[in-house]
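Each field is set out as follows.
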Amino acid sequence: MRRPIIGIAGNIEILSGDELPGMDRDYVNRDYSVSVIKAGGIPMIIPPVPRDCLPRILSSVDGVILSGGYDIAPDLYGEDPHRGIGYTMRSVDVFYMAIIEETLSASKPLLGICKGLQALNVALGGTLYQDIGKESSSTLCHLQSAPRQYPSHNVSIREGSMLSSIIGSTMMVNSFHHQAVKDLAAGLSVAATSSDGLVEAVEMEGHPVLAVQWHPEMMAAAGDEGMLKIFKHFVDACMNH
């Protein structure tokens, strides 16, 4: 059986505290690759590249995962930076916007994770809470102080959504974010929320698109079968597309 090739959109890490401080490095956390392999796919890391490179790259992959990363530059959704915003790298954000648009244009399956959900919302015209602790009525801790593979809070999944067909009506998830969807972009629908009302997952009608705010790759790589179902569903969609 042919194993689909899954492109994983990467980030740029600025090294510090070693023999090469200040050196830029293309990277994704290994949990993404491990989860794709466990789900039956072949991971291929896509570093931040100019847009004109993307059509050729996307012709070589069967679907795209948007990995997590830094905060998104707020000018991309029409705002100035607020005090609570974290580190941003606009060049990576522009790459995310481009790979989202090119993937949707090619009608290939797309899975967004954490920043990937936020980038999808921004690319389609939505906005973000730059810091949910200062700008929203959120009452939960969405930046957990626990090992990355441990779930920390519950999400409620909308009946009839693609996500509900994968993992059911509710799920305990891990949580490592301080930004979140504020104004939902046209074309997206909410698939899951936390108990304090924040958007935890979105889908896109007419496209094989799912994005979640938590980090299923961290839990799946550590052996969580429920989270691995998300990757298996995605890999199957890529194989059958």
Residues 5-240 form a domain with the Rossmann fold fold (CATH 3.40.50.880). Residues 90-105 form the longest helix (16 residues).
